[in-house]
Write a structure and sequence with these properties.
Blueprint (H helix, E strand, L loop, with lengths): L3 H9 L6 H8 L4 H9 L3 H10 L2 H10 L2 H8 L4 H7 L5 H7 L5 H10 L2 H10 L7 H4 L5 E4 L4 H10 L7 E5 L5 E6 H4 L19 E2 L4 H11 L3 E5 L5 E6 H18 L13 H27 L2 H6 L1 H30 L5 H34 L2 H31 L4 H29 L1
Parallel strand pairs: 1-2, 4-5
Antiparallel strand pairs: 2-3, 5-6
Helix pairs in contact: 1-2, 1-3, 2-4, 3-5, 8-10, 14-15, 16-21, 18-20, 18-21, 19-20, 20-21
Length: 443
């Protein structure tokens, strides 16, 4: 299969290409592929490609771009071009890109909107970026709970938006009272009230719910969309399967990027100084943790001078602790995400992980101790590293449980920062255990 993005990049390397050539190359590409293609070429070439894109397609492509890439492109446009770009923007698109736009651009977009879209936007910005109320879709079928089946069927026929298989019923004050699925009224009599087909205890999403948890709720509900309600039970909008997939994708991308200290909105061709500054910060954090570990090693300088074998074997102790801790950390982070970990089962879980760590520590300490004995012909050195392995794996199990739970309580994402803290703890614990025991037993 051909890769249209690669073909576009290859096309841009050729001489004497025209706007028509570019437009022909991207005409069959969906907006997200065009956005990815723009992010895959140097900033200096993006304006040329952008000028080749039809005006009617530009906004959709802009929404699909990453935050930094979007802002870099908008800086190349003049006020007239920006006003034309936002001439048909709706509240949902503007909410999606608002965090990467300067206030003057948002003001331009708001002036182009009708009153209803401005109302939707003002409602959406009251919620945080990761709350369901910010993500809602307003293309839902809403009706009074008193309507009849014939009226409901007319409403269904008028709507062509995806995931429109549900009727959302409200009372006189606008509060949501329930939902009716299309399948429930297909064979009903036209004069029957739809309230008789309303599903009892229909699930809903609080507008302040984290968007990833909202995706979980939608998945468990086994429907294509759920109503989103504010604190007064007023219908804010709906959260549908498309939102859930997007939330999952962004979460996964954020974790992958943050594990290396990068932002998921980072541009592949962002300015050198900006890239160096963002990456340099995390290099500095890593350097501090490395200095901490080195400082603890320095406390045992005399021991290392006399028993050189300890320096050779240190990476084994740190590595075993790091792997064991990462396994526990991953398990706990998943448990927190699924709501499986509570005060009631925390102590039992901690006990279980310590037992697992103890068992693995004993088994592998015997293996490593025997290998060291064979290698260095020193029973005491083998015993020393075996004891250090047991201690460090137990510390890794303890840290792997406690660190993510504490970070979660502090409203810090344990999936993003837990591994950095865990690695530092297991390294330092391993070095102290190994070198401390070496000082006591080998000198």
């Amino acid at each position: 299969m051909s890769n249209p993005i690669a073909e576009l990049i290859e096309l841009l390397t050729q001489e004497n290409i025209s706007n028509q050539d570019i437009n022909q190359a991207i005409s069959s590409m969906p907006p997200d592929d065009v956005a990815l293609a723009l992010e895959s070429i140097p900033v200096s070439q993006r304006r040329f490609v952008w000028d080749s894109i039809k005006q009617t397609n530009r906004l959709d492509i802009l929404v699909e771009m990453r935050g930094e890439s979007r802002l870099l492109l908008l800086k190349e446009l003049n006020d007239l071009e920006i006003a034309e770009l936002f001439s048909d923007v709706d509240a949902e698109d503007l909410l999606e890109i608002a965090d990467s736009l300067p206030d003057p651009m948002i003001d331009i977009a708001l002036k182009k909107m009708d009153a209803k879209q401005r109302e939707y936007y003002q409602q959406g910005v009251t919620y945080e970026e990761d709350e369901a109320g910010r993500w809602v879709d307003h293309e839902l079928i809403v009706a009074a709970q008193t309507i009849r089946v014939s009226e409901a069927m007319r409403l269904f026929r008028r709507v062509s938006a995806p995931y429109s298989d549900t009727l959302y019923l409200v009372n006189r004050t606008g509060r949501w009272v329930g939902c009716v699925h299309l399948r429930s009224i297909l064979n009903a009599q036209p004069h029957e009230p739809v309230s008789g087909f309303m599903e009892e205890e229909y699930p809903f999403i609080d507008a302040q719910t984290d968007v990833v948890k909202a995706a979980d709720l939608l998945e468990k509900s086994e429907v294509s969309a759920l109503p989103v309600l504010d604190s007064n039970q007023l219908l804010v909008g709906r959260f549908h399967a498309g939102h859930a997939l997007e939330a999952r994708r962004l979460e996964q991308e954020a974790v992958q990027m943050s594990n290396t200290g990068l932002d998921e909105d980072s541009d592949l061709f962002s300015p050198v100084r900006r890239s160096a500054a963002s990456r340099g910060f995390w290099l500095g954090i890593n350097l501090l943790t490395a200095f901490m570990a080195s400082a603890f090693i320095g406390l045992f300088e005399a021991t290392l001078e006399q028993v050189v074998a300890l320096a050779v074997l240190m990476p084994i102790v740190a590595s075993m602790g790091g792997i064991a801790g990462s396994q526990t950390l991953t398990l706990i982070v998943r448990g927190l995400a699924l709501g499986q970990i509570t005060r009631a089962n925390f102590s039992s879980l901690l006990k279980k992980e310590l037992q697992v760590g103890g068992l693995n520590g004993i088994v592998w300490s015997l293996c490593i101790g025997a290998a060291v004995l064979f290698w260095f012909q020193s029973p005491m050195l083998g015993f020393t590293i075996a004891m250090a392995i047991v201690i460090n794996i137990l510390m890794a199990a303890l840290s792997g449980v406690i660190i993510p739970v504490v970070l979660d309580k502090l409203k810090i994402d344990p999936a993003l920062s837990g591994s950095v803290i865990l690695t530092t703890v297991t390294d330092i614990a391993g070095y102290i255990a190994f070198l401390g025991l070496g000082t006591l037993l080998l000198l």
